[in-house]
Specification:
The protein is α/β, with parallel strands linked by helices. The protein has helices spanning 16-28, 39-49, 56-64, 100-108, 114-124, 140-151, 170-184; strands at 5-10, 32-37, 71-74, 92-98, 128-133, 155-156. It has a single domain (5-186), classed as Flavin prenyltransferase-like (Rossmann fold, 3-Layer(aba) Sandwich). Strands 3-2-1-4-5-6 form a six-stranded parallel β-sheet, sandwiched between helices. Helix 1 packs across helix 7 (170-184). It comes from Anaerobacillus arseniciselenatis.
Length: 199
């Protein structure tokens, strides 16, 4: 049976909780997850959530389950990781949240670290690449970079929660965005009530 594998990148844009929740949901659905977190991403973990990032392995265990055999964490210099190669089969990659710096690197094909290289692999192999930008306002450079990525096969899913499901908590807003990502990578979920199911 084909292994179910996704790659997730968490960068330094505000909204690290989106990436955390996505990884949790993918693991819950029994996917293998290759995870990368930029240095700025780790800083957001600390600033937005108050996490102690001095022991990163311990924090990953706390967030995603101790000794989770389906989670593979990679540093950005780990170019020998399987996800750096197009011959490694995985179903796609989500960069969530995606900073404008990372967006720029992906749009230009920079491949200066493992996260950027893996995004480039997704595009060259015609696999799913989803970017979840969390920035406002957007300038023309940001918009042009999103268009460039979109034109070569990537998909842009801005962190824009819907309100028609009448969210009551912060979790409802987070789950809506993560649910839209899961919809676009073909993963079943129950994170929000769909429009036709509203009573």
């Amino acid at each position: 049976m084909k292994e179910r594998i996704f790659t997730v990148g968490i960068t330094g844009a505000s909204g690290a909780i989106y990436g955390i929740r996505l990884v949790q949901e993918l693991l819950k659905a029994d996917y293998k997850v290759h995870l990368m977190i930029t240095e700025a991403g780790w800083q957001v973990f600390k600033e937005e959530h108050g996490y102690d990032t001095s022991d990163r392995d311990q924090l990953l265990n706390e967030l995603f389950g101790h000794d989770n055999s389906n989670l593979y964490y990679h540093t950005l210099r780990e170019f020998t990781a399987p996800i750096a190669s197009g011959s490694y089969r995985n179903e796609g990659m989500v960069i969530i949240p995606c900073s404008m710096g990372t967006l720029s690197s992906v749009a230009s094909g920079a491949s200066s670290n493992l996260l950027e290289r893996t995004a480039d692999v997704m595009l060259k192999e015609g696999r799913k690449l989803l970017l979840v930008p969390r920035e406002t306002p957007l300038n023309q450079i940001h918009l042009e970079n999103m268009l460039k990525v979109s034109k070569v096969g990537g998909k842009i899913i801005p962190a824009m929660p819907g309100f028609y499901q009448l969210p009551r908590t912060m979790d409802d807003l987070i789950n809506f965005v993560v649910g839209k990502v899961l919809d676009n990578i073909g993963v079943e979920h129950q994170l929000f009530t769909r429009w036709g199911d509203l009573k």
